[in-house]
Structures are given as C-alpha cells and as structure tokens.
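Records of this kind hold a single protein each, on a pair of labelled lines. Below, a sample record shows both lines together.
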Amino acid sequence: MNKQKYDSRLYRDASNPMISGVCSGIAKRFDLDAVWVRAGAMTAFLFAPTAIALGYILGILFLRKRYA
C-alpha cells in the first residue's frame, strides 16, 4: 500500500489560484473542493468583511506558496 505522507500544514496553492491561492490551499489541506471554500469565504465576507479581509491578507503574507 503506497500512501502519501499526510501534510498538515496550510499553504497557498499556486497551481490553482483565483487571487493568490489561499482558498485553494485551505481546500487542499482539508480535502475539499476549492469552489466551496471560495463560496464560503465570500459568504463570510458579507457578514464580517473586516475580519475576513484581514485573515485573507494575513494568509497572503504568512502562508508559503506551494506548486502542487
């Protein structure tokens, strides 16, 4: 049985970015579809725009970019 090593780190997915790859990196980390993570981020942005924008900017600044 060949299993890949489970990577528990968050990163920005540079192979599937819409803006900077933060949502697609989160989607890969939790094995979700990137469309759903992006839709959730946009919905959350409607209710708490400052917090979501700040979190996204921090993700851009502090998460490493990975070409996967």
